[in-house]
Amino acid sequence: MARIGYARVSTLDQDLDGQLARLTAEGCTLIRSEKVSGGSREGRPELATVIAFLRAGDELVVARLDRLGRDTRDVLNIIYEIEQRGAFVTVLDPHVSTQGPMGHIMLTVLGMVAQMERRFIKERQREGIERAKAAGIYEGGKRRFDRERIHALHAEGIGPAAIARAVGCSRMQVYRVLRDSSA
């Protein structure tokens, strides 16, 4: 029986240290972490690795349920998958485990709260953007990579993979930038 920890933050500028310290203090022998949105299960390779690693009697530990996911259906599906492997889930804050009969009810309610919180966050964000647009100060999201540099490197004859490494984006994003500019 292993205690395996999973930690997640949504953005690159958020810090995993608090979750990692808590999971270590709880005796997790293996901890996987990632910086990716919890709005969906998609694109979360560390979570998939943890689930695939779980064996009968193992325990997956998360600091808070919203670290596992912010969509109730996703969270319940993740818990179901874990239980199909004979393992169980423990949430540290508030302390709830799927080992007991009340754990499932509590985790379902907590999952619904996490999903509702995500909807509130998105709604506040949308309202803030609308206010900024109305005030004429909205500039859109910040660019994550330099599109002009992609074009310059491409003009020099450098291939998409090398451009992606140089700019710090995926090869697919390079293809999109080049495609969108030629249209």
TrEMBL record:
Biological process annotations from GO: DNA integration
UniProt keywords, alphabetically: DNA integration, DNA recombination, DNA-binding
One function term, GO molecular function aspect: DNA strand exchange activity
Entry-linked SUPFAM superfamilies: Homeodomain-like (SSF46689), Resolvase-like (SSF53041)
Residue intervals of the Resolvase/invertase-type recombinase catalytic domain: 2-136
Active site per UniProt: 10 (o-(5'-phospho-dna)-serine intermediate)
Similarity section: Belongs to the site-specific recombinase resolvase family.
Designated name of the protein: Resolvase
Source organism (scientific name): Methylobacterium radiodurans
